């Protein structure tokens, strides 16, 4: 009877297509397919999936405490950033988690490689049939109607019950990519060069004197085969910064099979914008273009993670990183959003200021779309990075109507902004009630000009608009402040927000007019103090120097 019972149990397990002896529990699921995507059918069982596992980090709460300790101006440890080894001690999974996950992988004949410095991320490849079996999933093909983008995803997946508390997530599973290219809007026709350097000097007091500290570096993220062209940079500098050598350039780093070909026809609007307005504004600061290839499943989020792990692996990562890409928060699983956000905290604890463009869809998300409730963007909702919105006009500046802003549905309000956000919500009253999460992390944090930036692409001048213009501009201001701090023997600013919302707030130009329409509303109005259109305001370099103690 025992033998017969075992045989029946074995056959039952085989029929279900699940590993023996594993009680699978649903780990992540989404209720519906993101807007614009539709189900096409089951994925071919032979298609290879490149999957990643995130192991539970041993003590992220401890790292978060240390991050705020070294990033808050009133703290005795302000500026005492953590070393690579110190960060990894908080993030490295516990040995029992590593053992449990490896045992499960071995049991299923899978060999995975570690892909993060702290050992909290692993990667392996399996066919769809195996993935469906391992995770009790239904990997299917989904198509984005407008762009034709096809992805293989599942609406839910499970993991063995005994891996709960050890395995945090599997990716890509329920997270969908942003099908749009996130590129800034190209204005037409090209207008006068309102944003040549001398105008930034007039508006924000950004100095033209050359930085002096070679150890201080500014990095620019490059994704989706956007390439920064050196000849275009030379032309740009010749026209807009004739006071510095036109041979001034950037260094290149690559990962995930990234490259940066110099064929003029391959010059990217976004990459050229970001490089021209960092090299061109942060005078003399060594600038790095980090080109992330597409050696992963699909979507940009793997690249978002990989570039941070790439920098975390360095002994001396750059002091500023600016990124002009993002997507709607609701396309991402909460677990993955948390993992990426935690990665920004790790780099911030090392002394790097992380800035992202807030998006160009007003309250309707990363880019304009139809919606009923307001759509927050990612990673702007993450509390461990600095989100940059956009303004336009001079004397006074006003909010650019495309500037994405609002409140996260995934991340709660961090303590550093509670007072500022509370004041705004009180002033807002019942406007747009029920369309956003009043207890969510508010964004953007700051802003700069974001309209009519002249750039050079393939030898020709173009004018572009977008928060893609604003993030590299504000990043350049921070890089120049870091240069002065380094020259004075002081630490870089690192994670900016505790500073910006305290001693730095009075060094920003408050923007009190304009709004960011979307979702068939006027969006949020800019008001005195912080607002979810322009944040705390735009930079005043002289006042910021005083605020950082120089």
From TrEMBL:
One molecular function GO term is: tripeptidyl-peptidase activity
- Write down the top EC class of this protein: hydrolase
**Active site (UniProt):** 270 (charge relay system), 274 (charge relay system), 468 (charge relay system)
Record's keyword annotation contains Acyltransferase? no
Q: Which UniProt keywords apply?
A: Calcium, Glycoprotein, Hydrolase, Metal-binding, Protease, Secreted, Serine protease, Signal, Virulence, Zymogen
Domain Peptidase S53: from-to ranges: 194-550
Question: Quick check: keyword Signal in the entry?
Answer: yes
Q: What is this protein called?
A: tripeptidyl-peptidase II
């Amino acid at each position: 009877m025992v033998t017969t019972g075992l045989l029946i149990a074995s056959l039952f397990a085989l029929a279900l297509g699940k590993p023996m002896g594993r009680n699978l529990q649903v780990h992540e699921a989404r209720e519906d397919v993101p807007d614009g995507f539709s189900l096409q059918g089951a994925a071919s069982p032979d298609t290879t999936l490149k999957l990643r596992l995130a192991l539970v980090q041993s003590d992220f709460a401890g790292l978060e405490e240390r991050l705020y300790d070294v990033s808050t101006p009133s703290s005795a440890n302000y500026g005492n950033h953590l070393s690579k080894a110190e960060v990894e001690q908080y993030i490295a999974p516990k040995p029992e988690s590593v053992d449990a996950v490896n045992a499960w992988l071995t049991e299923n004949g899978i060999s995975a490689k570690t892909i993060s410095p702290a050992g909290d991320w692993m990667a392996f490849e399996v066919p769809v049939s195996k993935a469906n079996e391992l995770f009790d999933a239904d990997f299917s093909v989904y198509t984005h109607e407008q762009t034709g983008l096809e992805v293989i995803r599942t609406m839910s997946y499970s993991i063995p019950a005994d891996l709960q508390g050890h395995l945090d997530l599997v990716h890509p599973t329920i997270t969908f990519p942003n099908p749009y290219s996130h590129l800034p809007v190209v204005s037409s026709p090209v207008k006068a060069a309102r944003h040549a350097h001398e105008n930034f000097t007039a508006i924000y007091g950004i100095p033209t004197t050359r930085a002096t500290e070679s150890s201080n570096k500014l990095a620019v993220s490059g994704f989706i085969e956007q390439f920064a062209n050196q000849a275009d940079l030379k032309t740009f500098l010749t026209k807009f910064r004739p006071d510095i050598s036109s041979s001034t350039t950037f260094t290149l780093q690559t990962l995930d099979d990234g490259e940066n070909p110099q064929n003029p026809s391959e010059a990217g609007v976004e990459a050229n914008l970001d490089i021209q307005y960092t090299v061109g504004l942060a005078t003399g600061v060594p600038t790095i273009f980090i080109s992330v290839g597409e050696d992963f499943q699909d979507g940009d989020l793997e690249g978002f993670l990989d570039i941070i792990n790439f920098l975390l692996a360095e002994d001396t990562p750059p002091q500023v990183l600016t990124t002009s890409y993002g997507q709607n928060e609701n396309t991402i699983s909460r677990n993955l959003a948390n993992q990426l956000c935690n990665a920004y905290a790790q780099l911030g604890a090392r002394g790097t200021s992380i800035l992202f463009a807030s998006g160009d869809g007003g309250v309707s998300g990363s880019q304009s779309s139809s919606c009923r409730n307001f759509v927050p963007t990612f990673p702007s909702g993450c509390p461990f990075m600095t989100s940059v919105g956009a303004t336009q006009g001079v004397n006074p500046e006003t909010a650019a109507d495309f500037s994405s802003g609002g409140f996260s549905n995934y991340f709660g309000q961090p303590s550093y902004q509670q007072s500022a956000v509370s004041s705004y919500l009180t002033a807002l009253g019942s406007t747009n009630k029920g369309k956003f999460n009043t207890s969510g992390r508010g964004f953007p944090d700051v802003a700069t000009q974001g309209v009519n930036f002249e750039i050079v692409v393939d030898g020709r001048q173009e004018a572009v608009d977008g928060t893609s213009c604003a993030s590299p501009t504000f990043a350049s201001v921070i890089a120049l402040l870091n240069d002065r701090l380094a020259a004075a023997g002081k630490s870089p600013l690192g994670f900016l927000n505790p500073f910006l919302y305290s001693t730095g707030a009075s060094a920003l130009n408050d923007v009190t007019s304009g709004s960011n329409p979307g979702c068939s509303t006027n969006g949020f109005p800019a008001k005195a103090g912080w607002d979810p259109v322009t944040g705390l305001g735009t930079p005043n370099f002289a006042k910021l120097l005083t605020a950082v103690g120089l």
